[in-house]
Amino acid sequence: MTGSHALFGDTLTIAKRIQQDILDELGLYVTVGIGDNLLMAKLALDNAAKHQADGIAEWRYADIPETLWKINELTDFWGIGSRMAKRLYALGIYDIFDLSQAPESLLKHHLGVIGSQLYYHAHGLDFSKINEKYVPTEKSYGKSQILDRDYQDPVEVTIIIQEMAEEIAMRLRTSGVDTATIFLHVGYSRFSTLRGFRHQMKIQPTNSSRVIKQTLMTMFWKYYQDEPVRSIMITCGSITPKNGLQLNLFEDLERSYKSSNSIQP
């Protein structure tokens, strides 16, 4: 907010203006967290803003003993889920004050780099910057659906899978990239005794609708267990730039070209 003060006023004034703008345009009441860094603002939002009459909470470094260290549930802290909480319990750490008093060396020894991060976070220290652009190491393309009903007929399920695959393949071609890993997750009905299956298959880099569909059909019929289906998720990973077209000696050249580059199936 520092760079916006000259234009819109102090941080609290800006927060109230954002709230009012959202209320006027969308009819939604929103809460706001304010802090000296991203972490403190996030924690103020999650733990205090909803309890304030105006929906705004402000946590500063000077207030850490009365704010951050008063978080009693470890899972109410950013970055700590139920599994991490159990690991901290095993170290005799039961709340955020305990976490702040634990030696960094102990946390790092048992939790690795995450332990050091939690140590600094427990003291309100966060070195990330909001203007830093995050670039993922690997991009993936995917689509998921929770179906409107339980599908008993597997043929109907295959039609949906192929429609989803076509959409993903079109996005791959539009982006000029290939995929080399196809992942399929099929979730069964909540009334089924089985949960479903999830599997992946490595393939030659491609963005061909036909190849992606064939791969998904192979996995589906191999692992499907004659149960009603309620959810489907497809992900294409191992993304690489499209550098050329690998021809198949046993397939017509024109068909190979069209299936790899055409928007249509």
Q: What can you tell me about this protein's structure?
A:
- This protein is of the alpha+beta class.
- It folds into 2 domains: 31-121, 5' to 3' exonuclease, C-terminal subdomain (DNA polymerase, domain 1, Orthogonal Bundle); 141-261, DNA polymerase, Y-family, little finger domain (Dna Ligase, domain 1), CATH 3.30.1490.
- The protein has 10 helices and 7 strands.
- The chain has helices spanning 5-8, 11-26, 38-47, 82-90, 96-101, 104-111, 113-121, 154-175, 209-223, 253-261; strands spanning 32-35, 56-59, 141-151, 177-188, 196-206, 229-237, 240-241.
- The strands form 2 sheets. Strands 3, 4, 5, 6 and 7 form a 5-stranded antiparallel β-sheet that branches.
- A hairpin with a 7-residue loop joins strand 4 (177-188) and strand 5 (196-206).
- Helix 6 (104-111) runs antiparallel to helix 7 (113-121).
- The protein is extended, with a radius of gyration of 25 Å.
- Residues 261-265 have low confidence and may be disordered.
- Residues 16-81 form the UmuC domain.
- It holds the Pfam family IMS_C.
By CATH, the architecture of the largest domain is named 2-Layer Sandwich
- How far the N terminus sits from the C terminus, by CA atoms, comes to 49 Å
Give a quick account of the main beta sheet: strands, pairing sense, barrel closure: 5 strands, antiparallel
Instruction: List segments where confidence is low: pLDDT < 50 over at least 5 consecutive residues.
Output: 261-265
Helical percent range?
A: 40-55%
- The name of the CATH topology of the largest domain is Dna Ligase, domain 1
Number of helices: 10
- Approximate strand percentage: 15-25%
Number of domains: 2
